[in-house]
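Lay summary. Proteins are chains of building blocks that fold into shapes, and those shapes determine what they do. In this project we predict the shape from the chain. Here is one chain we studied, written as its sequence of building blocks.
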Amino acid sequence: MHISRPRSILLAGAVAVTLSATALPAAFAAPSSTAVISEVYGGGGNSGATLTRDFVELANAGSAAYDLSGFSVQYLPGTPSAGSLWQVSALTGSVAPGGRYLVAQAAGTGGTVALPTPDATGTVAMSATSGTVALVSGTTPLTCKTAADCAADTRIVDLVGYGSAVVREGSGPAAGASATASVARGTSLADTDNNAADLTAGAPTPVNAAGETSGGAGPGDPGNPTEPGTVRVHDIQGTTRVSPLNGQSVTGVPGIVTGVRTTGSRGFWIQDATPDADARTSEGVFVYTGSTAPSVAVGDSVLVSGKVDEYYPSTTTQSITEITAPRVTVLSSGNTLPAPVVLDATSVPDAYVPSAGGGSVDALALDPATYALDLYESLEGARVQIADTRVTGATTAYDEVWVTVKPNENPTRRGGTLYSSYTDQNTGRIKVMSLDTTRPFPVANVGDELSGTTTGVMDYASFGGYNLQATELGTLTDHHLRREVTRKQRDKELAVATYNVENLDALDEQAKFDTLAAGVAVNLSSPDIVSLEEIQDDNGAVNDGTVGSEATLKRFTDAIVAAGGPQYAWRYIAPVDGKDGGEPGGNIRNVFLFNPERVDFVDRAGGDATTPVTAVKTKKGVTLSASPGRIAPTNDAWADSRKPLVGEFRFHGKPVFVIGNHFTSKGGDQPLHGRYQEPKRSSETKRVKQATEVNTFVTSLLAADKSARVITLGDLNDFAFSPTMDALTDGQVLKPLITTLPEDEQYSYVYEGNSQTLDHILTSPGVYRFDYDVVHINAEFADQASDHDPQIVRVDVNARD
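And here is the predicted shape, written in a compact code that computers can read:
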């Protein structure tokens, strides 16, 4: 989905334009697909303003010229009185398809920059902060003074109320107009008859019918230029991440069409066939056509006029440099495309991105020879090529796959790329998507290969950052990755596993239950205890106060039996409705399954959603005040988050304490590939608090019995090298077992092509002998029941005796 971008802000008053009788709409309740008011500014000449005059800008979203002869733009104060009258500015001429039409209004005493040559001139002194502007059929003043009355006036083609205007379209007026800000439509010129949604505030950017802007002009007819202008693509891209021409109009930018996107964020890429000598300046750029499908083809030689815009997919991402509201002239077709830049282990630097001390890297000069993200930015919109790349992230539901152009960069045993440090990013990762919607996208698992050459255009997105939009896709070589099956525990071994089952509830399809059940019964070889994360209440996201999970757990345990496993029993504590985070209405919680034929659960009354469990010292060792129980459930560390579940078990007569965890997610953290470097991990603060609470509880158990066998496990949503893990293991009360594996096996989750660890099992010093395994059945596969791999530890509880 292409998020609309701020462009300029409408005035606080209302302006009306009058149309000929042949183009008369029924009412402004019917959105216009042709002539619209695209921008309104009433701050011209005010104190602090740059522009000397107010203006109203019209635009034509249609495919044919729009005749404005006999029409008018009209203005009404934002809060009209009994004596308020609509003020009329007559129009002449027409608006070209995709073009603009500028109506100058009254000048003030402030400002230093003149408007471009207006196409019509009025004398209305519009308010900077509140008013209504209408595009009207005819020059007779309107008489309506309420939104309802104006909606009934069939002469009104389009209407914009801004600030606190009483007369406006939709739920409210456009917000944010001021002495320095206009209100304007997004680059798609979408009109939904809701001013508050259609128009946003920003610096005023007036454009006239000739494509001229304040302080500059472009040659020829912007609707159909036949000669290149003076601006080239590399001038638009510049030597930093933000265009030096951002917000300015350009005319007749030449290029060859290298890729066309007809779905989602529609548009096409052009590339200059005559590059400059500066490696920092990309020769390609995206031309955004909004809701309109591009009418060009790969190989077309074109001239593009429009406005340069930096589109940020989100507030923390880098931007995409685009030409918006384009007017395109096709000069010829079937041209040879510029040669692609080859990305491989020798061309991609080992350093990831420069530091800005946590600030934005937008203004830093690119250094593509030193930093991988600078290299990718210097190729934004340009053709690139990769060859024989290893798959490091399986094909997603959105038809995208992660590969690496560096085959020897931190490989895992099964073909992925290991993420092992905040300071050592994997620079060879890149996401591959396809612009060819006529061919099925390859379904790849980690370790497969995208063989041959893949060629396309370098793009950027909020999820994953830089990606290759393929016009020619390599072929898939299947390396036959197989799901693992761990060994069966021996008679004397207690087998304890953790498994995130991804929002399982009783309304899910049976296939999900069956696949997850097979993971427990077959791949995990039926552990004695399974700590589950993401069990929801019995009706999932239905928000009706239900908190029990009995139906969900019965379906799951029955499916395990059907898959050849034992008949598990379960224990959990239902949360207070709506207090544990997760999917709204889902009431997510941790649950213990256990095989009563092999292990006993010690039931001790007193545990509920809000009562904290404590360690109780006895002559025979430590016990729990309640079993099952919750750790400090009212502590703010667990606000709107899953509370840890503690249970006391007995195996071969020996007590074992199990703590099931699901720490708060990484939502809200700045992305690795984003504009802020180094990225802030804002969610980490809460996880550190949660880890500290669990550490405190384990410490209390060990203070009562230093030899207590404690197994802490679950989805901790953080890495083995994180401050969260430091807080959890403080005082060496717990040992993270992931670090006992060979380095190339230390992962249980794959995200954006990085194999990493969010799930953990940790043991207390009282666990002397263990056998630990991450069982890879989900994260590396395109077809997955959960996005997490389960883990298991087999403990010899008698090892110290």
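What the prediction tells us: The helical segments are 147-151, 195-198, 233-237, 372-378, 510-523, 550-562, 684-704, 723-729.
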